[in-house]
Amino acid sequence: MKSDLSIAHSAKLRPIEGIAAKLGISKKHLETLGEAMAKVSIDVLKEKRPRKQSKYILVTGVTPTPFGEGKTVTTIGLSMALNKLKKRAVACIRQPSIGPFFGIKGGGLGGGYSQVVPTEEISLNFTGDIHAVSQAHNLAAAFLDNHLYRGNRLKIDLGRIFWPRVIDVNDRALRHIRIAVGGGAAGVERIDRFDITAASEIMAILALTESIPDMRRRLGSIVVALARDGSPVTCDDLKVAGSMAALLKDAINPNLVQTIEGTPCLIHTGPFANIMHGNSSIVADKIGLAHADYVVTESGFGADCGAEKFFDIKCRQSGLRPDAAVLVTSIRALKSHSGLFRVASGKKIDSAIYRENTEAVEMGCSNLKKQIENVRIFGIPCVVAINRFGSDTPRELHLVKMIASHSGAFDCVVSEVFAKGSTGGIDLANAVARAAGTKSEFKPLYQLGMPIRDKIEIIARRIYGAKGVHYSPGADESIAGFQKLGFGKLPVCMAKTHLSISHDPNLKGWPKGFTLPVREIRPSIGAGFLYAVCGATHTMPSLPSHPIGERIDIDSKGRLRYVP
């Protein structure tokens, strides 16, 4: 089979106006960027259209492994397969971050014959949205430090500043830094940090806002610090929110591209569901729902991460109700969760994992069972998609189907969209259509009026399976302070490892009996939630011993290529 890049380079790109026309989006709502990309104005949502009974489908997965389970591949392939069945569909996926692209994960645009194109443009600078987020975020940081230097009229407490700087690169050296070294003309010396841009509250705001006025309001509400008397200091207080909005006025519009089969795909905001909510934008989903029969949207990492935040944060703010979820797994991922094999990023993988081993599959299915439960908790049907690879055997596939069925899955089907494109996803598309045709009983996990601690503990116990929660003294103090400031009725966004349902990346399968450590609570008031950081989670990722970037180059035509 050809490489992903070879397949992408050989794909015939349709003019983007024609892709938009498939959704009934006219040229007046497009800002084209070359022949194959465009921004779609959010004003398209103001058009009066016949009410559609569109189906809203979430794609999530088991706990990730270094193999990659194929969530994006499945999201893209499912949308193509639904279109093949004459059910007009659009895929909504998250914009790839430069950090993992050059780090350990690589691209986030699918693979094989289930990809979004054009590859280079989307994977690298795309339409500039991530850069706009970085600029707006760092402008606020610059205004904050300038305010401190100019006399600190707002009496900001230097020990309670929440606003770091951001950059869209994995760089461990920036996790803890000292700025304005020496003070004086350099400014007020203090300890700071960089987060990756995807972890910026501004990225979350873009994903959750639905209009320019609302975006401006949210930017102004960002709490960058507390004053000495404990009162919040916002971007409006720094008089920077208007300039931030000016930098983001185009980034609020979703980006339209296509799959290699010409299915429309909206890409907008939101990777990193381990350290932020990890979902694409509400406006992208709503544009899709207004113009298609099916919207297939993707959340990051496992169902304990992105899916929980999709249900409890994104759906609360959008008012949208999902009709079904697809839970992606693979035989080799389940074997990895058995704990019988050494599987680590950047390390040589035990070749035995590719040989038939039903015992390992059954042991690893503990993770699948828990993630099915995590979807079903929210009251929607769950279809399990087994992303098939050449080493999978019929006995292994049958075993997973049987276990998924006994664990409450609506259906479990084999998906071959990577190797076959839309034709490899027909069974999955039919299963999803049947599941979406049932009555959804969607409900969030907790009530917003609950105390902050209760919300955290419900997520910890019911989604992660923890026996309890331990709060650091700093987290205890923050909870009391945020409750007093009136932020207690916000949902909670949990930041934890994506490599385990627990907080510990070494605990595979379905961990039980652990206590979840909550290290700190940060405010994301403009985005509309509180942010609980658990365990040793970092909001700035690092590079592995041998980053993928070592193998990336360009050919004589300027196209990406991978070197041995």
How many independent structural domains? Answer: 3
Give me the CATH architecture of the largest domain, please: 3-Layer(aba) Sandwich
What is the name of the CATH superfamily of the largest domain? P-loop containing nucleotide triphosphate hydrolases
- Helix tally? 18
CATH topology type of the largest domain: Rossmann fold
Describe this structure in words.
It is a single chain. The radius of gyration is 23 Å and the shape is globular. The strands form six sheets. Strands 1, 2, 3, 4, 5, 6, 14, 15, 16, 17, 18 and 19 form a twelve-stranded mixed sheet that branches. A four-stranded mixed sheet has the order 20-22-23-21. Strands 7-12-13 form a three-stranded antiparallel sheet, with no helix packed on it. The model has no long low-confidence stretch (mean pLDDT 94). It starts with a helix and ends with a strand. The chain has three domains: 4-41 and 54-128 and 251-436, Rossmann fold, CATH 3.40.50; 129-244, Domain 2, N(10)-formyltetrahydrofolate synthetase (2-Layer Sandwich), CATH 3.30.1510; 452-534, Formyltetrahydrofolate synthetase, domain 3. The chain is an alpha/beta fold.
Question: What's this entry about, in short?
Answer:
Helix content is 34%, strand content 20%. The protein is of the alpha/beta class. The strands form 6 sheets. Strands 1, 2, 3, 4, 5, 6, 14, 15, 16, 17, 18 and 19 form a 12-stranded mixed β-sheet that branches. It has a 4-stranded mixed β-sheet with strand order 20-22-23-21. Strands 7-12-13 form a 3-stranded antiparallel β-sheet, with no helix packed on it.
